[in-house]
Specification:
The chain folds into 2 domains: about 80 residues, Winged helix-like DNA-binding domain superfamily/Winged helix DNA-binding domain (Arc Repressor Mutant, subunit A, Orthogonal Bundle); about 50 residues, Ferric-uptake regulator, C-terminal dimerisarion domain (Dna Ligase, domain 1), CATH 3.30.1490. It is about 45% helix and about 15% strand. It is an alpha+beta fold. It has 6 helices and 5 strands, in the order ααααββββαβα. The strands form 2 sheets. A 3-stranded mixed beta sheet has the order 4-3-5, with no helix packed on it. Strands 1-2 form a two-stranded antiparallel sheet.
Length: about 140
């Protein structure tokens, strides 16, 4: 299944005239084989297991280009490194500031808030790019 997902992404990029480099192929493969959110360092570790010549800086550049192409989203889940996931799995996040639990919200759930912010402040919000920080149910009760 993951190999099929990677092949579909690569085929779509080729149809758009995007050159498929070894690094792009390896990063896409690493992303489709992960569950959840991974850092660039996690992706580099996975990539370098099969292609040790691909450096961390190449992984970062590849992730940046894949984000520009709409394949990857990076998200800030509070303090620490950004994490990455495939844009096809776009969603918003809640992060507990106490226990660090991450709760996935369906894509579009905060769209009304984004529209209200745009109308009132003329500011375009990218809600999938950041997490909403607070307390989860368990931590709130303690």
């Amino acid at each position: 299944m993951a190999n099929e997902s990677a092949a579909k992404i690569i085929a779509t990029l080729r149809q758009q005239g995007v050159r498929i480099t070894t690094a792009r192929r390896a990063v896409i493969a690493a992303l489709v084989h992960t569950d959840g959110h991974v850092t660039a360092e996690d992706i580099a570790t996975a990539v370098q297991a099969d292609a040790p010549e691909i450096h961390l800086s190449t992984v970062y550049r590849t992730l940046e280009s894949l984000e520009e192409l709409g394949v990857v989203d990076h998200v800030h889940l509070g303090h620490g490194s950004a994490v990455y996931h495939l844009a096809a799995n776009r969603h918003q996040h809640l992060v507990c500031e106490n226990c660090k639990k991450v709760i996935h919200l369906p894509h579009g759930l905060v769209d009304k808030l984004a529209r209200d912010i745009d109308a009132r402040y003329h500011f375009t919000l990218r809600p999938h790019h950041f997490a909403l920080i607070g307390l989860c149910e368990d931590c709130r009760e303690t």
